[in-house]
């Protein structure tokens, strides 16, 4: 299977994972552990409110007759059963999600790419992924927004955010992103979701190398150019 399609499928399998609920915390911590960063890099903060830009549609006070202090700690999701929110909010885990997806690819589909497992990305920084791609010496790195990314490319946005392309179009693309929100939210969210993005927002993207065929004795150097 094509390396890009493999990576995109892994990202798509995580859609709906919510880092704001205890039920999604195991997956979220798995993403964080795919990096070499300490927890402090993700700016954890204690909170008793909730996550996302559309809090009003997801959170409601239970026990309306009770006091605010006795009810504001409970979550009422209109689509799911009520569940307690995780009180420790984790920020800035979009790059950790990408790191984890690449790690999953290299451990479960090692024949899809020539990228060695020890050279996988481990950065907690979205912009750091571009540096990793360049230093890997086998990935293709494109800077700027003039070139259209394709399925499986790791996109880095100019507002310090990242994701994995699952569908490309003319002037836009769909990407699966961690630490995002539904709709038009920004780069500080609570779940993994598919987002529609303008190509103009790109700072650049990284394309993993395919597996070298029999007879390819040398690893191709990384291709880095301005788009």
Describe the protein in words.
- This protein is α+β, with helices and mostly antiparallel strands.
- It has a single domain (3-40, 90-226), classed as endopeptidase fold (from Nostoc punctiforme), CATH 3.90.1720.
- Helices cover 23% and strands 21% of the residues.
- It has helices at 3-12, 25-33, 55-58, 68-71, 94-108, 126-136, and strands at 45-46, 88-89, 140-143, 154-157, 161-168, 172-180, 191-198, 202-207, 223-226.
- The strands form two sheets. A seven-stranded mixed β-sheet has the order 7-6-5-4-8-3-9. A two-stranded antiparallel sheet has the order 1-2.
- β4 (154-157) and β5 (161-168) form a beta hairpin.
- The radius of gyration is 19 Å and the shape is globular.
Short synopsis of the structure:
23% of the residues lie in helices and 21% in strands.
Looking at this protein, list some descriptive labels:
227 residues, two-stranded antiparallel sheet, endopeptidase fold (from Nostoc punctiforme), seven-stranded mixed sheet, alpha+beta
Order of helices and strands: HHEHHEHHEEEEEEE
What's the story with the biggest beta sheet?
7 strands, mixed
CATH architecture: Alpha-Beta Complex
- Please identify the top-level CATH class: Alpha Beta
Strand % is: 15-25%
Mean pLDDT: 81
What is the CATH topology assignment? endopeptidase fold (from Nostoc punctiforme)
Structural class, please?
A: alpha+beta
Q: What's the alpha carbon Rg, rounded to whole Å?
A: 19 Å
Number of strands: 9
The 3D shape can be described as globular
Through-space gap between termini: 28 Å
Strand order, sheet with most strands: 7-6-5-4-8-3-9
Q: How many helices in DSSP terms?
A: 6
The helical percent reads 10-25%
Report low-confidence residues grouped into runs of 5 or more: 49-78, 213-223
Number of domains: 1
């Amino acid at each position: 299977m094509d390396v890009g399609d493999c990576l995109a499928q892994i990202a798509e399998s995580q859609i709906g994972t919510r880092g704001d609920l205890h039920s999604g915390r195991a997956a979220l911590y798995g993403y964080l552990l795919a990096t070499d960063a300490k927890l402090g890099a993700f700016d954890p903060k204690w909170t008793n409110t909730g996550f996302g830009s559309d809090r009003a549609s997801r959170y409601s006070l239970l026990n309306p007759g009770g006091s605010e202090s006795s009810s504001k700690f409970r979550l009422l999701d209109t689509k799911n059963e009520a569940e307690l929110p995780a009180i420790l909010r984790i920020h800035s885990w979009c790059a950790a999600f990408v790191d984890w997806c690449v790690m999953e690819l290299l451990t479960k589909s090692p024949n899809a790419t020539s990228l060695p497992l020890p050279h996988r990305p481990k950065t907690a920084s979205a912009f750091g992924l571009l540096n990793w791609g360049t230093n890997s010496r086998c990935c293709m790195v494109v800077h700027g927004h003039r070139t259209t990314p394709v399925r499986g490319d790791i996109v880095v946005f100019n507002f310090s955010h990242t994701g994995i392309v699952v569908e490309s179009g003319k002037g836009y693309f769909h990407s699966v992103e961690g630490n995002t929100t539904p709709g038009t939210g920004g780069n500080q969210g609570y779940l993994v979701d598919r987002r529609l993005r303008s190509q103009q927002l790109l700072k650049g993207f990284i394309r993993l190398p395919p597996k070298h065929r029999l007879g390819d004795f040398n690893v191709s150097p990384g291709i880095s150019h301005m788009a």
